[in-house]
Every structure is written in structure tokens, then in C-alpha cells.
Amino acid sequence: MTDRRPDEVIDEAFFGWSLDTGEHTIVSSSLDARRAEMWRTRLQDHVRLQPVNGLEPPDVALSYLEFPDGHAAVVRRVREGFSEGRGNTHVLIGSVATLDAALALRLERWVGWKSAAPAGGMGTNSVHYLRSCAADAPEPPLDLVRSLEKQLVAVIAKILEYPAYPLSVIGCPETSRLPLLWAVRRAAENYLEREFPEHRRRWTFSTYEDRHGASIDNLPEIVFLPVVPSAGEAHRRLVVRFHEPVVDQSPLVEIAGHLVAGLLRSTPPPNRPPVPPPPVAPRPPEPRPSAAPADLPSGGVRVPPSTVPASAVAVDPAPPRGMPSNLKEQLTTPLLNARNVTEFLQELDTLAHVPDRAQLRAAFDADTVNRAAEFVEIDTRFQLLNRFLQTLYGADLRDLQGAPEAQKHAGRLIRTCQSEQLSLMLGSAAARHGRPEIAQRVLDRALQLGGPLKPGPRRRVRGVLPWAITRSQRVVLLALAAVLVLLTAVLSGYFLGQNESADPVVGAAPATTSAVVESARQEQVPQLKFGRAQVAADPARSRVFAFVTAEGRYFPQQPCTPSEDGNSTWDCAQTYVPPVKPGAPSELLAVVVPADQADGLTRDAEQRKGMPRAPEWVNQVPVRS
Amino acid sequence: MTTSGRTTRCPICADEFAWPNEPEVWLFNPGDGRYELFDISTVSPVKQADLIRNGYRRCPNPSADMVEHFLPASFGHHGDPLVIGLVGAPSSGKTHLLTAMIRQAFLNGLAAYGITVTALDFRRHVHFRDQYITPLERGDGLAGTGTGVIEAADILLLRGPTGERPLIFFDVSGEDLRSTDARNRATRFLLGVDAVIFVHASADPAEKGLSSVDSENRSFELAIERLRDRVLPAAIAVTKSDRLRYVAPADRWLHRGEEQVLNAARIRAESRDVYAYLHHVGSGASLRPFEAFSRCTLHFTSASGGDALPKQADKEFPKYFPRGFRPSRVLEPLISILAMTGVIAGQEAERVGMP
Asked: Rounded to two decimals, what is the model's pTM?
């Protein structure tokens, strides 16, 4: 018998009515007391079958849940046990790596499911055994899947529209739920991974829920409900009604149709979507404005969705219990993540509708305002001027290449316009297009500092004129001008490259200059953390490694070193800024890892590679500075 | 943001904020279960009033520690809200009691005290009726309440001699009430309650398989500790008292049915009998609210009139009430609460629950 690694073991737990404690809880499991309590808390919102609106729940419901620490659970609820709403539930618990959605979907008919509380304790299962059982499970009959073609298209089209958002399917017959899930995943998984790599779908699911409010922690990505809940709990999910025909003829429906046809009739899948899917930072699903106010109840004007406050819908669904939904982040992140002037203005419009401005002011502290202002003062001005110049000279200012009239116009502008930045941008573009004689005008302009320039009429109040300076400052300004030319050239490449790559249809990688600038920005403000952590580790078998967690991933940094203080105290330091969105919250952690993983993690750290938490990392503590 | 200048405490997140007075309301779209924002500044005052009556305002939740939630847009237009929470062990009968109580209130059960009841949140009440009242009237047993519920069970409007007051009921899972997790949002309502009905089920060892009564009532204990610094009225309801219909002194009270006159002495007499009964059967742990709150009454109640039985012999549930749905004295705890909170006014009301 070979030793099994911990992640090869699937634990079991059984929820039911406890005669000892008089409540619905874990009555038997293979877990120790500490882990049993942890899993009871995690699963308590997912282990009951509740009727809704007089409709009886199904006799059996299957769910697959994932948790942030890399664990997963397959939950089978049955309509048996103590009472309605407090029935029996059998749960399999393992790591995401071993207990994945594909396996969960094939465990519907697993012979090991228990409907009544086991008389004795419960043991563990090997993954190998479960996989062998699942391998014997038949796939859903193709005829049944074919009968769901329209619904499959509707579901997949909705996912394509908002790939980052969870989905609720309303009114799907009980027997069609698992086949639908199987088919959606089979038809769309590869396409979604290829086209939307930034949105990792976990394919968590539940074949029955009575509610889908935002207050439910860790609700799966796809859930089935018999009816739209009328209790009034706010939710942040996409909704697809099973029996409503797909009337939308949008390109997304067309793509979804191709994907489903690929599954059912083995036709080749689409390589690329014909229209741009949602932007990288997708807008949340919002109520669609009606076409005419006539359908509004008793009058009133529907406020356009874009003006709905971001906090209403634009936050991640179901924050973990006890981790307060961070309203500050909800309010500030969209604005700070704005990539261009248009997005910035849209976010400002949204924020203008937040009813409580005191709350808004509390969210926008000095640091946040500084970051927003920096965007306005640097990026926004540059983008506007860039857009202005592109309007005058075409995309990438290509008119400077071959139109003598444009070159003449540019030269004149560089010599006489009021804006230093605009003249520098023009000069850099001219240099890029092989017109050094126009770029030379920038230097000529600088050399004329204090000279008889003839500025045009001004319409706005300006500060001190740049040429009203002493000659002693000219040398400094000349050097500054040269630096600005170089910087502008780089930034031009960055923004122009970004504009070109913003089209998700093409799916092109960001321009190299973009990466350079991003990298440069990050290295300018490294904000590397360091400090001490107190955690026990067996030196013979374990190492303490520093990680930075951000956006749900772990970025290895370097091994921590034992502190002189002893007493299991470690000095840990961050070595780089993880390649995540600017402003994304991060934390420096000390994690106890198996000793044989240390070298690999060091190599991963050199590549700045993020990863999920591995189940064998037994302990982690924050590093205190 | 324009406000009415009136400070309101949200019963869901327990935050206080100035009630907004903006010409925008959120309307619930039953099609997809979303709230949609409407600008009503351009419509006539009559239509505005109607939309406010049916619309919602989003709670600003200044603490930013709760998921998005909404209150009826007219919530702040009436008198101070009266928030009542039901506290009790799992399967103690909280939901059945609340359902029977609200049903009786809508059947003009409070008319004798000059109080009428209507829905303030129409949609929520329709949901409550469909989910609970209708099945119970049909004779069906109700399912246990699921965990993690943060919303109010029902929001009503009381109209009486002392004015109009919203009445909000919270009924969460007994498992949540037993949770010692301080981050559990389902029990947040306890921070904002104005009165509590503690629910103790008359024991049936066969039902839960327990051979003896609990030496402590953790739901009660945890709630009392969270409310200890506040002066609140409380009522203890001994539910499932139909099991005691041949046991004195419960039999005498159950046979009286619903009362029609407020009588502090009678309420005190019933409280005395309930106290004696609980003490006698060893349920002293369930008397803790009486010791913790200065104004507390005790009542025998029966939400259904009898135990529910499985509909099919080979299955534990669904269950039904074979003798039909016959609630008894379910309004008495509420009437005592109304008297102790000033909704029912007068000298007699002032004596209710006093030592």
C-alpha cells in the first residue's frame, strides 16, 4: 500500500438533526472536531432543501461548491430526515485539484451517497475510487441534450455577455438541470477559457436553491430556482428564464448557437467572436431600461442603468460571512480603475447618484482622491490631447507621414501653440513617423524661450507664461524638454497601443510599450512590505515562505528567515509587486509549506507567478511590519 | 442628498441615517427579482405618492458591513418603527407562531384595542402570505427557516389611537440564533429590535429524541447578552401548548381563546402560571428573559392547535395538521408587547409586564 497524499483523500460529512444538541448540524463525519466546526459554518447555508411559494423541493439536489482556500465540496441534499427544511445532507470534501466540477457532475448516481445518518462514523474515500466510480457514470443522453438546445443557447449567450457574473436559471425541470449543466460546460468551457482568460469560471453549481440573494455566502456560479424569489432580497446575478424563448439575435446568441451546434452536431466552433464581447472590466448586469415610459407603473422615468450607483450591483457576489462587503472599495475601485476619460466620466456620473454624499466622502479619503487626481492631471490630459491630435492628424497621427499640408500645420503648431505638452506630443509623433525636421521644431521652440513667440488668443486663465523666465532657467528647461520628448514618445506608444488592443475581438496582446510603462510604473512605486510573523514549523519537513495574496492568488516571494527573537518568529519580506490590477488589495503572508516545495516556489517567485493556495500548505499567518 | 431631517435606524443593518427625501425610488421587478431606480420628480404628486407607497429606498448602510438591502420608501413617513424579533431554539415553533400571529392580526384580531393592521411592504407581505399563511391555512406544516436570512419576515403598518407605526418582524433560523459567530449577519437584527418574543416549545421528548430538558437555552442566552444594556420589553411564549391542553394551569388559559380586553392583572396571572409551569418542568433556563428584562410577560400559545403528522406513513415529511389549523392565544404576546411599547396606550397598558 502506498502512502496517500493529503489531497488524494476525500472527507465525508453528514448533516442532519442532532439529538444531542437539538439542531441541524454535522452528525457524523471523517473530520476532526476543529475541521468539522469549520465545515459546519461553511456549509450551513447550503445543506437544506427549502420549499418556496408552495412548491415542494425536489427529492434530491446536488451542489458543487468551491472555497477560497482551495477546497471544494459536493453536497447532496435529500428530502428525508427530521423535518422539511432540516433534512439530511451528505457532503464530500476535498481539494479543488481533486474534487473538481467535472467529477462532481458525474457523481449524481454514485453508490456511496447516504440518505440517512450512518450508524457509525464516516471514513474517507480515495480520489482514485471516486474517479473510477465517476468514469462508469454515463453521460447525459444526447437526445435529452438536443431537446435543450434553445435553453443552452440562452444560457451560454448570457454567460458570454457577462462572463464574470454568476447565473440563475429559473424554471428548469428537475430532470434537465444536470444535463444542462453538463452541456453548457462541455460546449462553452474551452471557448470561455480562450476568450476570457481573465475570468476563471469555477463551474460551481446547485441544482436547487430557493433563494439567490447576495447575503448567501459562496453561492455557486450557476444555480437553478423554481421561481424568481419574491422575498425581496437583493441579488447580483444574471437571470435566465428556462421557458422564455431566445428572441435576441445578437452576435452573442449567434456565437452561443455555434458553440451548442459544435457540441450537438460536431460543427467547428467559432474561432473568434464577430463582435466585441464585454470590456475587460465588465459592467455588471443591470436592469434593462424599457423602451417607453408607458410601461412604467403609474408613471415615473426609469433612471438609465449607467446612473445606477455602482454599489448597487458592481461588487463581487456573496462576500464571505464576516468579511464586511467593503463599500469603500465598491465606491472607489471603478473610478480608480477607469482606463480612459470616458470611463472616468461614466464612473463620476454613477457616483453622483450615490444618495449619501457623506458616505462618498468617507470612501474617498486623501489617498484615494490623490490617485484619482493623478489620473486626471496626467493620464486624462494626455488622453484628451492625444484624441484631439488624432482628430486633426488621423489615427496615430499618420497624416504627418505623407501630407505636406499636415506637416506644415504641425510645424506651425509646435512653434506657436500655447501647450507645451501638445507641442511635445506632436514632435514625438513626427519623430516616430520619420519627420525629424518637424521634431526639431520642439527643440527650436525650447531654444526660443524668452524669445518673440506669438501666442494666439487665450480663452482660459493660465499660469505664468513659460517663456517669461530667466535665461538661467533655460538650460534646465532644455534638458527637461528632451526628457519630456522621450517620455511622450513612450506614453504615445502606450496609449495608442492600448487603444488598438482595446478591441477584444482581435484579442491582441497589449503593446509592448504598455507593458514597459506598466512595469516602470510599478517599479517606481514598489511599496514592498516586510515584517515579522509568528508561526511554528517543523524544520525537518517544512519551510516558512513569504507570499503576497492578491486577487485570490498567492504570489511566492522568498523563504522567510528565522528571527533572532526565536520563539517561532520569522522575518519575511516582499520582493516584487504582483502583476495584478493597480490598487488591488494585497497582503503579505507567511505560509508553512512542505520543505520540498521551497525550491520550486523560489523559481515561481522569479517568474512572478501567481497560484491558488495548495492544500498541503498547512498554516498561514499575516506578516506584521 | 436631500433628507427629511429625520434619523431612522435600519432594522436590517442596525445603522442610523437621515431618511432620504429624494425624488427617486427603487421598484422591485418581479420578473428578475431586481430593484430598479426610478426618477419620479416629473410625475404628478398623486403618482409620486403611489410610487413611494409601493417603492423602496436603498439603505445607505453607513457602516458598509451588510449586503445591499432596501426598505419601503414610505418607511420613514410614519411614526417610530416597532421592531420585534423572535428568538428561540431550532424547531421551537417561531415561524408557526409568527404566521398565526400575523394572520390573526389581519383578521382584525387587534380591533378590540383600536388597532388595525395593513401591509406596509405589500410585496413582502404577499410573499409572506404565499410562503407561510396560505400553506398553514391549508393545514400544511411549515418548513424550518433556512439559515443566513437577513431580511425582515414581514413589515406591517399599525394604525391606532397613538398614530401610525411600522411593525417589523424578524424570524431567523434557530441555528443562526445559536451561532456564537459574532460575524453572523442573520442575527444583526437583534441590535435594532425594540422588543423580543422569546419562544420556548412545550417539550415533547418523542419529537426531538431528547430524554431530558436542556439545562440551558443557548438562543435565549446569546440574545439576552446582546440586549443586556438596553431597556426592552419582552414576552415569553410557550408554543405548542396544545400538548398541555389537559395539564393545569395551561388548559385553563388555552380554553379562554383570544382576549378582547387589555387587563394587566390577567396578563400577570397568566405570566405567573407560565413561570410556575416552566419552573416545575425544569425549564428554568427559558425563564432567563424574565430575570434579564424589567418588563416581561409570559404566555401559553398554540399556533396550530395540534401536532403535525406525516402525510405519508413511510416518510417523515411533508407534514400536515390532521385536525386542521386552530391557533389559540397567538396574539397575546403581541398585545403585551404593544402595551409595553406604547402602541396600546392608557393606564392599564402601563401596568402590563410591570413587577
From this structure: 0.66
Q: Is A215 part of the contact surface with chain B (CB cutoff 8 Å)?
A: yes
> Using CA atoms, how far apart are residues A558 and A220, in angstroms rounded to an integer?
35
The answer to whether B80 contacts chain A (CB < 8 Å) is no
- Name chain A contacts of B31, Cβ cutoff 8 Å: 228
Measured CA to CA, the distance from residue A8 to residue A124 in angstroms comes to: 10
Sign of CA dihedral B285, B286, B289, B290: negative
Determine whether the interchain pair A228/B30 forms a contact, defined as Cβ–Cβ distance below 8 Å: yes
Binding-face residues of B in 130-149 toward A, CB within 8 A? 130-131, 134-135, 141-149
A118-156 per-position pLDDT tens digit? 988 899 988 889 999 888 888 888 889 999 999 999 999
**CA-based end-to-end distance of chain A:** 47
A78, A192, A197, A276, A552 from A507: Cα distances, Å:
45, 13, 11, 9, 24
Distance from CA of A383 to the nearest CA of B (A): 32
Residue B79 DSSP one-character state: S
What b/e readout covers A336-371, taking b as 16+ CB neighbours within 10 angstroms? bbbbbbeebebbeebbebbbbeebbeebbeeebeee
Q: Does A45 touch chain B (CB under 8 A)?
A: yes
pLDDT of residue A162: 87
Burial A113-133 (b: 16+ CB within 10 A, else e): ebbebeeeebebbebeebeeb
- DSSP H/E element including A602: helix A598-606
Matching residue, cell 446569546: B222
What SS3 class is residue A12? strand
**Residue whose C-alpha is closest to residue B131's, from A88, A80, A217, A56:** A56
Question: Is B231 exposed, middle or buried, given 0-12, 13-18 or 19+ CB atoms closer than 10 A?
Answer: exposed
User: Could you give the count of Cα atoms lying within 13 Å of A361 in the half-sphere of its Cβ?
Assistant: 4
- Considering only alpha carbons, which residue of chain A is nearest residue B212? A20
| H or E, element range at A340 | none
Angle at A438 between CA A437 and CA A441, to 5 degrees: 95
Q: Interface pTM (ipTM) of the complex?
A: 0.90
Q: Provide the strand spans (E) within A339-386.
A: none
Q: B216 at the A interface (CB within 8 A)?
A: no
Domains defined for chain B, CATH in brackets = 3-77 (no CATH), 82-351 (3.40.50.300)
